[in-house]
Write a structure and sequence with these properties.
Blueprint (H helix, E strand, L loop, with lengths): L8 H5 L2 H9 L8 H16 L1 E4 L39 E2 L4 E2 L1 H7 L2 H8 L11 E4 L9 H9 L17 H8 L4 H11 L6 H6 L18 H7 L1 H8 L5 H4 L6 H10 L5 H20 L10 H16 L22 E10 L4 E9 L5 E10 L4 H19 L3 E6 L2 H8 L7 H13 L4 E6 L6 H9 L6 E5 L7 H13 L1
Parallel strand pairs: 5-8, 8-9
Antiparallel strand pairs: 1-4, 2-3, 5-6, 6-7, 7-10
Helix pairs in contact: 8-14, 10-11, 14-15, 16-18, 17-18
Bound molecules: zinc ion.
The site of zinc ion (ZN) has 7 residues, from loops.
GO molecular function: nucleic acid binding; RNA-DNA hybrid ribonuclease activity
Protein name: RNase H type-1 domain-containing protein
Pfam family, one: zf-RVT
Length: 492
């Protein structure tokens, strides 16, 4: 498939005339302004929905283009004043097989960006960079997802990376906040007065007046919209932890946020962040006459969102091993079984890969436990585990193998023939290319309980520095997990 089929024509061709054709066919249009505006808006929209999948990095400008994987953080935010405008992502990659140049990356970027870069998967094959659409599963553009993106507040997107960086502790606190990336980005924009408030739009001559649409009394800057407007101020007054702050008269939103930080109470900044974000969201919904929660629901919603986020991002305490419902099954007689699994360690921003290769009597041929950098998504860590498992099997010299994992999506995508254009798809393709070199293989899905040794190996990676391999045995601390599988075999 030619790469342009991936994208709507207007992006592939660029240029005003092709935009015109894309939207309206060949019939000649009058030059009415609103048409042009909507075309330009749509073009901007489509460009904002595209991201680079890093291959060799040769085509991707480090500055100003979408190439990171996080929602709300697709572009580099570090100031990079010393970096030439045409510096390419390829300059951050070295070695063979290619890896991220961690030292260089750490010296150039702020920690927030460093984490986001190191989690981008690289392929061992020579790969060109390619654009993909990040709102669909397979990375292909669809009209439906384009429309969805258009419905999102187009202005609530990525901050300009060209902005001067201010080494203020406030920024550090924003990036450290335990809230989703999109909320950090929102706060950052609010502090830089780059939210599309009425006064901001008025300054840019987009609206005829700067006055708040809610109270119609004062000019609406971000401080007014999120803190001072009477309707909003009433919401804050319902939260006792903010009552002291309400007695102050901050000069600006960043001034207010500094006060929030100074109060030093647990998670106050996070509560402030999520509540502000919900208030801003409501304000936008109301402006567009779309349904929104009443003001009275904002605090309970903020509370629920915060607990939800903390629950997802906090390590679960290890539970007592439950008797497995699905047991590990040995491969058929002339095959080896390769189980793999991935784990995510949120607190250290790393992940783990675990692989175990066994023969048809359940005896271990080899095991691997590897740490990877970056806080990957579940899907990505499972794909990385699959790729590592196949490579490990080849390294060990296994040519007849049943590969088994507990992530259904990954197994399904490994069996699919149509390409996936996302960075996740790159890892899946790598895996498929290697699979093709294995004489005899099959792929299967099992439950977590049938994959417990690989799972334990992946979890164990949090303790190691890079990776560890054991031949014909498992590390002593997970022997009991292996014995569990073996005892199940003996019973049958
Ligand atoms: Zn107001």
């Amino acid at each position: 498939m030619a790469s342009h089929e991936l994208l709507p024509r207007l992006v592939a061709n660029g240029g005003q005339s092709s935009c015109h054709d894309y939207y309206f066919g060949d019939q000649s249009m009058s030059s009415e302004l609103h048409w042009r505006l909507s075309i330009l808006k749509a073009k901007g929209l489509i460009l904002s929905g595209l991201s680079w999948r890093v291959g060799d990095g040769a085509q991707i400008p480090i500055k100003g283009s979408n190439w990171l994987l996080e929602e709300g953080h697709r572009r580099i935010l570090s100031p990079l004043t010393n970096l030439p405008v045409d510096a390419r992502v390829g300059e951050l990659i070295h070695g063979s097989p290619p890896t991220w140049n961690i030292h260089k990356i750490q010296s150039l970027f702020l920690p927030y960006d460093v984490d986001a870069i190191l989690k981008i998967p690289l392929s061992g094959r020579q790969q060109e960079d390619r654009l993909y659409w990040f709102d669909t599963q397979n990375g292909k553009y669809s009209v439906r997802s384009g429309y969805k993106l258009l419905c999102k507040d187009a202005r609530a997107h990525i901050p300009e990376s060209s902005r001067q960086w201010d080494p203020d502790p406030l920024w550090k606190r924003i990036w450290r906040a335990r809230v989703p990336a999109k909320i950090k980005t929102f706060l950052w924009r609010a502090c830089h007065d780059s939210l599309p408030t009425k006064s901001g739009l008025f300054k840019r001559q987009v609206t005829s007046n700067p006055f708040c649409d809610t109270c119609r009394e004062q000019s609406e800057d971000s401080l007014h919209a999120l803190w001072n407007c009477p309707a909003v101020s009433q919401v804050w007054s319902l939260a006792p932890e903010f009552s002291d702050l309400q007695k102050l008269a901050p000069m600006s939103l960043s001034d207010l946020m500094r006060q929030v930080i100074q109060s030093n109470s647990n998670l106050l900044f996070e509560k402030f962040a999520i509540t502000s974000w919900l208030l801003w969201h409501k304000r936008n919904q109301d402006r567009l006459r779309l349904p929104s929660d009443p003001h009275s629901q904002i605090l309970p919603r903020a509370h629920a969102l915060l607990s939800e986020y903390l629950a997802v991002t906090t390590e679960n305490k290890p539970q007592k091993p439950q008797p497995p419902q699905v047991r590990w099954k040995p491969p058929s007689s002339n095959l080896f079984k390769v189980n793999f699994d991935g784990a995510i360690f949120r607190d250290s921003n790393t992940g783990g890969l675990g692989v175990v290769i066994r023969d048809n009597t359940g005896m271990v041929i080899a095991t691997l436990s590897q740490k990877v950098t970056g806080n990957h998504t579940v899907e990505m860590i499972e794909a990385l585990a699959a790729r590592r498992a196949i490579r490990f099997a080849m390294e060990v010299g296994v040519t007849n193998a049943e590969f088994e994992g507990d992530a259904e999506t990954v197994i399904r995508d490994l069996c699919r023939t149509d390409p996936i254009y996302t960075p996740y798809g790159l890892v899946i393709e790598d895996a498929k290319v290697m699979l093709a070199e294995i004489q005899n293989f099959s792929l299967s899905h099992t439950r977590r309980s049938g994959n417990s040794v690989a799972h334990a190996l992946a979890r164990r990676a949090s303790k190691c520095n890079s990776y560890l391999v054991w031949m014909e045995e498992v590390p002593p601390d997970i022997t009991h997990v292996l014995l569990n599988d073996l005892s199940a075999l003996a019973v049958e």
